[in-house]
Design brief:
The protein is mainly alpha-helical and 91 residues long. It is 81% helix and 0% strand. The two termini are 20 Å apart. The model has no long low-confidence stretch (mean pLDDT 93).
Length: 91
C-alpha cells in the first residue's frame, strides 16, 4: 500500500497503482474475515500494527489526494482499504 500510493505522481501513475491497491484490499479483506478466529495474542498484534499503519496511510492518502486528477481514480480503492484497516484495528 505504501509503495503503491508513494509511487503516485499523476493520473497515469494512479492508474498503474490500482492493481496493487486492489490486491492489498483483497488481502486485507481476507485477513479481516479471519481475525476473530485467531488467538488473542496474534489478534492483538495485528490490531496494534494496523493501528500504527493507519496514520501513515492517512498521510499518504492526503498527499495523493492533492494531486490533480488522482482522487477520482484512487478513491474507491482508498475507501475499501480504509474500511478494512478500520475493521482490523478494531475501530
Amino acid at each position: 500500500i505504501s509503495s503503491a500510493l508513494g509511487s503516485v505522481t499523476d493520473a497515469a501513475s494512479a492508474e498503474a497503482a490500482v492493481p496493487k491497491l486492489e490486491g492489498a484490499g483483497e488481502t486485507l479483506s481476507n485477513l479481516a474475515s479471519k481475525l476473530d478466529s485467531l488467538p488473542a495474542p496474534i489478534k492483538d498484534q495485528i490490531t496494534g500494527k494496523v493501528g500504527e499503519f493507519q496514520g501513515k496511510f492517512d498521510e499518504l492518502v492526503g498527499k495523493v489526494a492533492a494531486i490533480p486528477g488522482v482522487g477520482s481514480i484512487l478513491q474507491p480503492h482508498i475507501d475499501s482499504i480504509s474500511g478494512h484497516l478500520s475493521a482490523l484495528s478494531g475501530q
